[in-house]
């Protein structure tokens, strides 16, 4: 079995494994005081997204699609994506089972233990996969996967790829199509018909 197939199977089994690990917490008195149903929902939603991406790679048809290495990079990129969404001190406490599973699947202690080249290659592969998914979002097999991604997916991937890139500000020398100092000669309000 190839490395991709092993990683794909682990990703497919992730929601079931997390469900088993989280249900044991509900028996303790302390956990009954915490809003675990809300935490568990987000954790399982992200695990299910990883599973759907792993399953949808069977439908991925592009020139790189024959490469298990590319598909493996997409899955690693997905793990990095989810890790980036949960990389806060509070999330480390609440989502420990998910983050521990990601560590186990990637065989690292921290996502930053990955070398810079594989980190970037995986996120670029995920970006390419996401563009393909956007183009094929209306197919029956991929529609639910597409709608399961958060709306800000492209921004999150961009921020993970280029975390130190400053936000660009409006520069009239560069941006000539819009000038905020020029007012429109007409306005559309409730009683104005345009």
- If you compute it from the alpha carbons, what radius of gyration comes out, rounded to the nearest whole angstrom? 21 Å
Helix content: 55-70%
- Fraction of residues in β-strands: under 5%
Question: What is the string of helix and strand elements?
Answer: HHHHHHHH
pLDDT < 50 runs, ≥5 residues: 182-187
First-residue to last-residue Cα separation: 64 Å
Name the shape in a single word.
globular
**What is the total domain count?**
1
Kindly state the number of beta strands. 0
Structural class: mainly alpha
Oligomer: single chain
Largest sheet: none
Number of helices: 8
Mean pLDDT figure:
80
Please supply descriptive tags for the structure shown above:
58% helix, mainly alpha, single chain, 0% strand
Description:
The protein is an all-alpha fold and 194 residues long. The chain has one domain. 58% of the residues lie in helices and 0% in strands. The chain is globular. 24% of the residues are buried. About 3% of the residues have low confidence.
Quickly describe the structure.
The protein is built from eight helices and no strands. The protein is mostly helical and 194 residues long. The model is unreliable at 182-187 (pLDDT under 50).
Give the topology, please.
Elements: H1 3-23, H2 36-56, H3 68-85, H4 89-94, H5 96-106, H6 116-135, H7 143-148, H8 153-161
Helix pairs in contact: 1-2, 1-3, 1-5, 2-3, 3-6, 6-8
